[in-house]
Write a structure and sequence with these properties.
mainly alpha; two-stranded antiparallel sheet
Length: about 160
């Protein structure tokens, strides 16, 4: 499968998911930047633009000879306008968020600096905060100290 520029709705859904973390603003620690970055209502459009720019950078790297408007995915004139965060009526579910992150990472990982990018660190933080919201996560044991007899499989 080839890389493509994700739709702005995809970025909006990721931002929605990050803003839906109830305990505190979502934080991530980009390399080469002192301190942490966080996602708030005030900087949602800025963070969305950062994510979009990273995806475009990746797809441009993958298709070096293409013009911005010729890249796979939606790259029409609207993409030349600054990203503007728009809240969804219903934010994505935790499973949908994990799929959003996987798709975004697949499209954005084409260039060599991906794993040191702020977008990569954002994705890691969003994934971690989302995993904790999966149904049953809080009720699951932190550590298993004994093996329940019914979970053991006899190999002989």
């Amino acid at each position: 499968m080839s890389a493509f520029v994700v739709d702005k709705a995809h970025i909006n859904a990721m931002i929605d998911a990050g803003l839906s973390v109830k305990s505190r603003p979502m934080h991530w620690y980009p390399e080469g930047k002192e301190g942490s970055s966080s996602l708030t209502q005030l900087n949602a459009s800025e963070v969305g633009q950062m994510l979009l720019d990273e995806c475009v950078k990746s797809v441009c790297y993958r298709y070096k000879d293409s013009e911005m408007t010729d890249l796979p995915g939606r790259t029409d004139a609207e993409y030349l306008l600054p990203f503007q965060y728009k809240r969804f009526a219903n934010p994505p579910t935790p499973v949908e968020v994990l799929k959003l992150i996987s798709c975004y990472e697949y499209q954005s990982c084409e260039h060599p600096e991906w794993k040191t990018s702020e977008a990569w660190h954002f994705c890691q933080a969003l994934r971690q905060s989302t995993i904790g919201r999966l149904p049953g996560y809080d009720a699951a044991p932190w550590e298993w100290e004994t093996w329940p007899e019914e979970t053991l499989v006899r190999l002989i």
